[in-house]
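Duplicate of #3305? Posting structure anyway:
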């Protein structure tokens, strides 16, 4: 919506939005570290990633637009998978508070594997398509202005921190006595998560399906 307004680049409109996007990456990532509600943490994570997308779109280079499109698709699937995982926990524990849902790996070992894979994807571990999108965006912003590498670097570090925090708080530790006899997971839940992560895996094999749109 804003891309058409920024062609050609008017600096008086471009810079304020760029500052808000980059500052928003740090602020929303930092908020994730303080969250006790699982769904709120995932939501703020999405806002942080969209700060990268906004900054890349404003620069308006082929690499920037490619990175923005790649990250939008990749994080759309990743965030949706995280919300689906949070819902499977909530349906059984009836709480989203991280301190109360610890140690679920003991109750749902297969679901814990989905949590691990999705969180690794969320933090853009190689060789995920999320990493490709973030590399495109970070390279674009670095080429546009060198100091942006400090903000994007710190944002990436915080993203890895809260992704690990989310996994450890929900899966590791001692399980509460009230959650020792929880109903098992269903096939439909595993199918839902497969349909989220399988496209991400397939896009790794042929990222040109996205990157070829702007290059």
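Output from current build:
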């Amino acid at each position: 919506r804003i891309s058409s307004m920024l062609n050609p680049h008017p600096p008086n409109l471009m810079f304020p939005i760029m500052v808000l996007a980059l500052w928003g990456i740090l602020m929303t990532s930092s908020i994730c570290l303080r969250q006790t509600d699982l769904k709120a943490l995932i939501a703020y994570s999405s806002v942080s990633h969209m700060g990268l997308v906004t900054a890349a779109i404003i620069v308006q280079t082929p690499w920037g637009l490619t990175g923005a499109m790649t990250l939008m698709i990749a994080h759309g699937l990743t965030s949706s998978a995280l919300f689906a995982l949070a819902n499977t926990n909530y349906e059984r524990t009836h709480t989203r508070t991280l301190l109360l849902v610890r140690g679920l790996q003991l109750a749902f070992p297969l679901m814990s594997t989905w949590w691990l894979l999705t969180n690794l994807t969320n933090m853009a571990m190689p060789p995920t398509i999320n990493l490709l999108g973030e590399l495109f965006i970070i390279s674009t912003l670095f080429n546009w202005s060198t100091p942006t590498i400090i903000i994007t670097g710190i944002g990436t570090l915080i993203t890895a921190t809260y992704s690990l925090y989310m996994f450890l708080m929900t899966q590791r530790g001692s399980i509460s006595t009230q959650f020792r006899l929880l109903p098992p997971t269903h096939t439909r839940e595993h199918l839902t998560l497969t349909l989220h992560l399988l496209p991400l895996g397939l896009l790794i094999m042929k990222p040109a399906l996205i990157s070829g749109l702007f290059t």
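Confirmed duplicate; merging threads. Residues 62-93 form the longest helix (32 residues). Residues 11 and 204 are 36 Å apart (CA to CA).
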